[in-house]
Amino acid sequence: MYLENISLHNFRNYTDLKAEFVPGVNVLLGANAQGKTNLLESIYVLALTRSHRTSNDRDLINWDANSAQLATRVHKNLSSMPLELEISSKGKRARVNHLEQSKLSQYIGQLNVILFAPEDLSLVKGSPAIRRRFIDMEFGQMSSRYLYNLAQYRTILKQRNQYLKQLKFKAKQDKVFLGVLSDQLAAYGAEIIFQRRQFLKKLEKWAQQLHTQISLGKEKLTFEYVSQIATDGLSVEQLYDALQKAFVSHEERELQQGTTLVGPQRDDVRFLVNGKNVQTFGSQGQQRTTALSVKLAEIDLMKEETGEYPVLLLDDVLSELDDDRQTHLLKTIQNKVQTFLTTTSLSGIARQLINQPRVFTISSGTLHEEE
């Protein structure tokens, strides 16, 4: 899978941009605050209909405009098709092959991307919310069923939390509706936890291989899914029963605090190197190797799940890696995935590992191809 081109109109600092790309490495070169990350962000938005940098869609629209238009042609399965996305105050409109999609979930998955930025190094040492978001965003590209379950779960969770807040201030509490919401939440929560464990098991297989290579065989990386309920080896039905029992046992505390205290919205992933929690006991080098292994593992997992390699977005990440890890990253992607790489300078990049890159210079929202 690769992008043949891109067209941006009133997206961030790009009033009008048209560019064509190579299937290999596309280098975006320029000083800071010129639009390199904005261009990467546009590709991410075209894939997932949302930004990784902001939750406010207005931020994506040029200050002098009321809407932004993004378009690309994606090559996959020996053919190509156009994708179009419009963002305005009225919402988003997405088209696949010029046909408008009634739901954004029907659009997501047409273009698969993996973003690796310096902040992704916090995937290992950051908060559980960062790791949950990582699972949801990456797995959501590969499974429309997971996206659906997640959307349903979030809707019901919001309703349940609002109802718990209402009950908190009532002397006479009607818990019948709370039971209905708990049952629905347990059903979707069980599906989410089951799918997450499946996803992580597959991701672990690829990440283990990469981590062993980077550490020269000295370290073994394993994943552990962390939840308030026992999840290991349980079926969806068993997870459903376990969540229902957990809601019952936590009911009084939830009523006191006015929020849901159990479920996948509170789960986490633990990364272990040679059996030790790398978040707590790992060196900075081990944490960075783990993050790199996990991110690169996504490339092979997406190929395994979708039949196509994703597009890789590297936002100034090479400057954060030492020579060994930088070399391993570039060798891993060589002749495998289309890559967009932002940098302020070509010096320090192992250019001998990049086969015939197309280099673009970006300045004040304009893009020029280097000879």
UniProtKB/TrEMBL annotation:
Drop me one GO molecular function for this one. Answer: single-stranded DNA binding
Q: Which UniProt keywords apply?
A: ATP-binding, Cytoplasm, DNA damage, DNA repair, DNA replication, DNA-binding, Nucleotide-binding, SOS response
The RecF/RecN/SMC N-terminal domain sits at: 2-344
SUPFAM superfamilies attached to this UniProt entry: P-loop containing nucleoside triphosphate hydrolases
Q: Where in the cell is it found?
A: Cytoplasm
**Residues annotated for ATP binding in this entry:** 30-37
The main location is: cytoplasm
Any Pfam family: SMC_N
Recorded hits in Gene3D superfamilies, A to Z, give: P-loop containing nucleotide triphosphate hydrolases, RecF/RecN/SMC, N-terminal domain
Query: A single GO CC term, please?
Result: cytoplasm
> Which InterPro entries does the record cross-reference, listed alphabetically?
DNA-binding_RecF, DNA-binding_RecF_CS, P-loop_NTPase, RecF/RecN/SMC_N, RecF_2
- Report any one BP term from Gene Ontology: DNA synthesis involved in DNA repair
**Cross-referenced PANTHER family:** DNA REPLICATION AND REPAIR PROTEIN RECF
> What is stated as this protein's family in its record?
Belongs to the RecF family.
Instruction: Write out the function statement from the record.
Output: The RecF protein is involved in DNA metabolism; it is required for DNA replication and normal SOS inducibility. RecF binds preferentially to single-stranded, linear DNA. It also seems to bind ATP.
Q: What is this protein called?
A: DNA replication and repair protein RecF
Q: Which organism is it from?
A: Pediococcus cellicola
The gene name on file is recF
